[in-house]
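Researcher: Let's do a round of design. I'm pasting the structure tokens now; please hold your answer until I've finished.
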């Protein structure tokens, strides 16, 4: 087809249909991106947003439809074709090599060579310039497996910028960032748009859409619902378009009635994998029945190591942990799991076995119980029945139900599967790390109500969240972590987001009840 001169759109995806076994992920979707605009793509988990962007990036081939760039039809067979067309993508689940350094990951596939030799010095200089320009500082010599999830996100963004892409796809870019990092990224995205780059921005976060997007296209269950100008809409209207019903955006809960202490942590220490000092240093706190205690803090201040130490994923090197009256400081992971549910930060590494089916993942910690096995043989019918019930209760969307391979599901539905499994285990302590990461407003509303219901049943809930809104609305007490220590205990009813931010940045401390 001849180039249509003066096309107002830099990218057009016209009548795109993409199918997988048992599901039509994209059903005749049309999406048009203007040059220099930030265009948000909004929809529930499993609505087909990531699939549509994966078609644009060449990871999937559509059954029907065409893609145009500047009015001209293009064929994108693979990500190399997309890169050649100036299209870059930051994936929701990072495409990084864990054992490579940050620098090696950024230049991989776009290496600068001279007479067959890698010019690492030049590559480093270019990455450092980009990093400085956009405020995306990372340790270029650190191995990816040793840096936080938030830092891995930065590596993905730097990878895209290093390739000088002009059409930028961000798939849930803020899911793992702190509030401060989100503000910085939003400013960076506006800067990209001002430079003439065009941005497609997948998110569930309505505040972010209202803050930076020029237009919003909404998908629901694989179908295109409509496109609206951000200035002409509001959060409630967008959530209604996305979910198809009115959504309660505020957490509704009664005051907590704390009971006996369930978890007691005394002078707890966990060593750091990155440096010689402890990542968690002499931390003490408790969580009681019937309350939600939130650990807040900027990513990388010891929250991950604290949770791994409590769950047994990392070894502690000092202090004592008491759970339901028993000292579990040296206990195995399985023994700790007898009284503890754990919704992990990294759903792929610690939450799921991606090549197992959904039903196998649902019984990972309970398959040895008599209801699921007899004489060492799994009762498949019982597992299927249990999995089907949880899928229905938590609205876990998958192409083939219980037999769906976990890897093929959307990130949000993988998260819902983990939450369903962990809450159904009915344990005295629930450790929930970023429980609503990557979830849409309808799912967030449901998960928040479930956590509050568990609290009201007398469970102790330890919440670790980077979302300030979630911290303020869901918790009964807030503990702030900074550089591996608890620097403040705050009451969400009497504190402000600004004050919480000061504690998180280390500018304020509350030791022994006195603010400093």
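Researcher: That's everything. Go ahead.
Model: Designed sequence:
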């Amino acid at each position: 087809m001849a180039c249509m001169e003066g096309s107002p759109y830099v990218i057009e995806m016209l009548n795109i249909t993409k199918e997988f076994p048992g599901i039509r992920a994209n059903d005749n979707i049309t999406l048009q991106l203007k040059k220099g605009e930030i265009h948000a793509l909004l929809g529930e988990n499993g609505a087909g947003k990531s699939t549509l962007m994966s078609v644009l990036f060449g990871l999937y081939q559509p059954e029907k439809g065409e893609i145009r760039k500047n009015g001209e039809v293009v064929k994108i067979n693979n990500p190399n074709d997309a890169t050649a067309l100036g299209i870059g993508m930051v994936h929701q689940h990072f495409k990084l090599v864990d054992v490579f350094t940050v620098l090696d990951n950024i230049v991989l596939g776009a290496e600068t060579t001279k007479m067959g030799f890698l010019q690492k010095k030049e590559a480093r200089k270019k990455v450092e310039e980009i990093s400085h320009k956009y405020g995306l500082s990372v340790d270029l010599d650190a191995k990816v497996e040793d840096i936080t999830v938030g830092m891995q996100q930065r590596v993905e963004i730097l990878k895209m910028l290093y390739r000088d892409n002009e059409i930028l796809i961000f798939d849930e870019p803020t899911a793992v960032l702190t509030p401060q990092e989100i503000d910085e990224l939003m400013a960076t995205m506006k800067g990209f748009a001002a430079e003439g780059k065009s941005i497609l921005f997948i998110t569930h976060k309505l505040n972010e859409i209202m803050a930076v997007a020029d237009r919003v296209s909404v998908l629901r269950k694989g179908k295109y619902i409509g496109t609206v100008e951000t200035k002409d809409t509001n959060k409630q209207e967008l959530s209604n378009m996305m979910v198809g019903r009115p959504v309660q955006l505020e957490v509704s809960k009664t005051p907590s009635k704390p009971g006996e202490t369930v978890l007691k942590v005394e002078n707890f220490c966990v060593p750091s994998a990155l440096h010689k000092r402890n990542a968690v240093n002499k931390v003490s706190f408790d969580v009681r029945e019937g309350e939600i205690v939130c650990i807040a803090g900027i990513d990388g201040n010891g929250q991950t190591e604290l949770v791994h130490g409590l769950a047994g994923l990392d070894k502690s090197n000092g202090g004592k942990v008491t759970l339901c009256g028993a000292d579990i400081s040296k206990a195995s992971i399985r023994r700790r799991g007898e009284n503890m549910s754990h919704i992990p930060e990294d759903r792929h590494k610690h939450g799921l076995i991606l090549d197992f089916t959904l039903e196998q993942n649902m019984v990972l910690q309970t398959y040895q119980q008599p209801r699921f096995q007899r004489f060492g043989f799994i009762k498949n019918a019982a597992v299927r029945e249990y999995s089907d019930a949880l899928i229905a209760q938590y609205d876990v969307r998958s192409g083939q139900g219980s037999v769906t391979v976990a890897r093929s599901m959307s990130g949000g539905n993988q998260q819902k599967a983990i939450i369903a499994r962990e809450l159904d285990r009915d344990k005295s302590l629930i450790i929930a790390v970023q429980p609503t990461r990557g979830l849409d407003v309808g799912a967030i509303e449901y998960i928040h109500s479930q956590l509050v219901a568990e609290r009201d049943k007398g469970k102790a809930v330890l919440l670790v969240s980077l979302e300030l809104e979630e911290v303020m609305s869901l918790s009964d007490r807030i503990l702030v972590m900074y550089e591996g220590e608890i620097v403040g205990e705050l009451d969400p009813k009497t504190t402000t987001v600004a004050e919480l931010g000061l504690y998180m940045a280390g500018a304020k401390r509350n030791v022994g009840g006195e603010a400093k």
